[in-house]
Design a protein that fits this description.
The protein is mainly beta and 57 residues long. It has no helices and 5 strands.
Amino acid sequence: METWYYEVISIDGDYANLKRLDIESDDLKLVARTMLPDNISEGSRLKYEMLQYEMAD
């Protein structure tokens, strides 16, 4: 299973825009906040693995 890394670029209500960090890409991914850790803020770094997001170390 792959591991991907994201940064929270913006939070808009019930959604957050995430940018991939582990590859070169300008695309943003819109993700429902219910799928993300409760304590995220703009600039938070996340790890996506096994269909779950968690705060990156």
